[in-house]
Amino acid sequence: MGIRERIGWMYELLSEAFGRPRERTVTVGLASAAAAAAVMLFSWGSNLSLEAAGPRVATG
Question: In 3D, which of 5, 26, 4 has the Cα closest to residue 15?
């Protein structure tokens, strides 16, 4: 399941939990926060994997 599918799934889950028309701003805010957290975790994981690979020496 990709990031977009997870965000869509979270958005659907939250919109059903909080109601669609009346509290849409709350749902969009929570979905945005969840998306931001997912991006932050993904970038943090990418940074860790790059650090584990060690420094790259440019030759040329």
Answer: 26
